[in-house]
């Protein structure tokens, strides 16, 4: 039986590879986000999917991550990558009662 030995340089390289970013999904259904709070890691993305029969416009004015996904209809989605740690409030410009927080952790 042969032994398989990795050179030290290979082991060091494996330990320094970046973590793979994850994609999370939050729907908009019944004029509400499907999550009130979502915890993710720096570099992860969130896919905002409209599940309602009318338009939504997801946005955030946070200093950590400002974005405006524009209006989009049922069945469509928009994605955002979160690259800084912190708490990011997210709202819908069309439905003022729609609110959630995205907590981005290191």
Automatic annotation (TrEMBL):
Positions of the Blue (type 1) copper domain: 25-102
Keyword terms of this UniProt record: Copper, Metal-binding, Signal
Domain of life of the organism encoding this protein: Bacteria
SUPFAM superfamilies for this protein: Cupredoxins (SSF49503)
GO molecular function per UniProt: copper ion binding; electron transfer activity
Signal sequence coordinates: 1-21
PANTHER family: BLL1555 PROTEIN
Entry protein name: Methylamine utilization protein
Organism: endosymbiont of Riftia pachyptila
């Amino acid at each position: 039986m042969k032994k398989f030995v990795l050179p030290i340089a290979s082991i060091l390289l494996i330990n320094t590879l970046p973590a793979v970013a994850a994609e999370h999904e939050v729907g908009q259904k019944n004029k509400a986000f499907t999550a009130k709070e979502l915890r993710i890691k720096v570099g992860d993305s969130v896919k905002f999917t409209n599940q309602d029969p009318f338009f939504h416009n997801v946005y955030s004015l946070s200093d950590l991550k400002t974005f405006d996904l524009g209006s989009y209809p049922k069945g469509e989605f928009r994605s955002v990558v979160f690259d800084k740690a912190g708490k990011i409030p997210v709202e819908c410009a069309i439905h003022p009662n729609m609110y959630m927080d995205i907590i981005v952790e290191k």
